[in-house]
Amino acid sequence: MPQLTVPLARSLARRTIRPFLHPGVPVAVQRARVDANSGPLPTGTHVLRRSPGGVPARRIAVGPHTPERTILYLHGGGYAVGSSRSHLSWGAHLARATRSTVYLLDYRRAPEHPYPAALDDTLAAWRALAAVTPPGTPLVVAGDSAGGGLALTTALGLAARGGGHTGDRHPGDRLPDAMVLVSPWLDPLRPWPYEPHHHRDPVLRPSWLTCCAEWYANGVDRETLAPARTADLTGLPPTIVQCGTDDILAPEGVAFADRAAAHGVAVDHTDYPDLWHVFQIGAGLLGAADEALDDLARSLDDVLKS
Fold first, then answer.
1. 6-26+108-305 CATH
2. Whether this model's pTM surpasses 0.85
């Protein structure tokens, strides 16, 4: 399939996605538009419906080979849109590049299900997968945007419970062997403006982020929703962080990577010049996304071999 150039991909994102991610658009319309945006699947993709911990998910594997690791993947979408359908192509490319079984989780979304519904679903799914994954098989938590926030909050909770390394821990409290955060949204109720990045990002606008944050928080305070700012990050697993420099949320990824490293976490942080929020989802169509995915796969290999 022909590859998109970066300028063309930017233009398409601005014209086909950004207009729908707006507070004035009904959330059902936003969800339908985002779900329709998934790209083509790699040859040999196998998709099954599963429900780890009672939470709906798509289980994805690619190719004839037995996957070497399992990834619980949490989609982005401001906690309000996005699904295993919108991220199906990205999940399949991730599965192929990392030689993994990927579980794309359909956690409950705001505004119908505000905090902590998404987190509760993520923890339930993680515990179910951890309980049946052999100790020698790497288990990774990953997510983009809001899903990155869920991944981090989940890992922090598991680290606080001891990571399942003592005999009295539930087997589902196993700490992830690695964490992957793609353009993570880690401070939904941030009080300061998103300048100077918002005018360069062809996907996100501050007003939509504010609306989604209010739906998700439903009265919960900022400190509860932003543990990356204040929590003790010691004990987190090795973490891969990827951001585009034109991403509105890039400063959050940078701040987290710096703070995590200061707490002794092994962090592999990469900024991609002139690219936008979760550009990686264009893998298979956009060369820059394929390159970032290759970087991610190599980094994950390095982390899991160390």
1. 3.40.50.1820
2. yes
